[in-house]
């Protein structure tokens, strides 16, 4: 059949690559495409425009912004002019505190949101109880929760983690619920005809069927957690990348502010890649199925 797996000379269908072989296969296939080169070209064009606007042409609204040369000079300086670089311990302390808060918030949101979403998608009665509450709370901006979180939790750490968890929880729950609802009804009927119990249906049909949506939601969730965390650190925090950005602004030092923003972007990108990697590892069955289809 056209588009199906190609048989080898021995007449057997070759198994799709796994583990490190799968990683090498994907890397080789990516290098042969234009994607990586266009990515490098896009980043280079962005840096060039930033340099031209802020350091060469001094365009309006860019003349007060530090350019890439000024930022990179301070970032890689052993004695930075404005106090923060890769050689200062304070820089890594801010990164560590933010990453630790994200880890706590993401784990709590995943541990609560995934089971909640699974049951909301599986049980109509349970969804009728919980969905209106979720939809009432979800539109409230995270910054609106800041005063209440400070009243509810003492210190600097707990309010920040609570705010990041709250934003991440909504995304995780809704994507998980949609994943369950996307499962074809024929799978449930087939499991019922085979005599499966409700627990077996939940374990072998609901959870695996919702996994692609769950990990898509987790990738979005960790991004939402990051910008919620930064907003919370700007209001209620003593360390972290958000605190670094607002502290630099209050002290009128722009280079550390941009360093914090760029660092936040790369760290957030890295955490999203880790979630994506974990999803690929847990859904190797789906990867092999797509490979057999030539996708």
The gyration radius over C-alpha positions equals 24 Å
What is the count of helical runs? 12
Shape: globular
Instruction: Tell me what portion of residues adopts beta-strand conformation.
Output: under 5%
CATH architecture of the largest domain: Orthogonal Bundle
Total number of strands? 0
The largest pleated sheet is described as: none
Write structural notes for this entry.
The chain is an all-alpha fold and about 300 residues long. Helix content is about 75%, strand content about 0%.
What is the fold's blueprint, element by element?
Elements: H1 19-31, H2 35-56, H3 68-75, H4 89-122, H5 124-137, H6 146-152, H7 157-181, H8 185-193, H9 198-235, H10 241-250, H11 254-282, H12 284-292
Q: What attributes does this structure have?
A:
mainly alpha; globular; 0% strand; 295 residues; disordered N terminus; MetI-like fold; 74% helix
Report a brief summary of the structure.
By secondary structure, the protein is mostly helical.
């Amino acid at each position: 059949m056209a588009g199906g797996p190609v048989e080898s000379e021995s007449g057997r269908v070759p198994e799709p690559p796994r583990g490190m072989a799968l990683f090498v296969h994907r890397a080789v296939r990516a290098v042969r495409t234009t994607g990586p080169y266009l990515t490098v070209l896009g980043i280079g064009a962005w840096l060039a425009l930033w340099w031209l606007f802020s350091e060469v042409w001094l365009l309006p609204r860019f003349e007060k912004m530090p350019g890439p040369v000024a930022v990179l000079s301070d970032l890689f300086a052993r004695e930075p002019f404005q106090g923060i670089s890769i050689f200062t311990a304070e820089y890594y302390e801010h990164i560590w505190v933010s990453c630790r808060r994200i880890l706590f918030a993401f784990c709590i949101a995943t541990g609560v949101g995934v089971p909640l979403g699974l049951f909301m998608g599986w049980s109509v009665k349970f969804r009728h109880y919980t969905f209106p509450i979720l939809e009432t709370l979800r539109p409230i901006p995270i910054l609106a929760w800041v005063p209440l979180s400070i009243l509810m939790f003492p210190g600097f750490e707990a309010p920040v983690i609570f705010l990041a968890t709250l934003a991440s929880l909504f995304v995780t729950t809704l994507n998980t619920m949609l994943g369950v609802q996307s499962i074809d009804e024929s799978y449930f009927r087939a499991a019922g005809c085979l005599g499966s119990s409700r627990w077996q249906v939940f374990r072998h049909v609901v959870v695996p069927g919702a996994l692609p949506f769950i990990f898509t939601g987790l990738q979005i969730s960790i991004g939402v957690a990051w910008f919620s965390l930064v907003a919370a650190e700007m209001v209620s925090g003593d360390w972290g990348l958000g605190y670094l950005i607002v502290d630099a602004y209050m002290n009128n030092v722009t280079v550390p502010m941009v360093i914090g923003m760029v660092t936040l972007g790369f760290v957030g990108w890295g955490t999203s890649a880790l979630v994506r990697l974990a999803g690929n590892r847990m859904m190797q069955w789906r990867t092999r199925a797509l490979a057999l289809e030539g996708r």
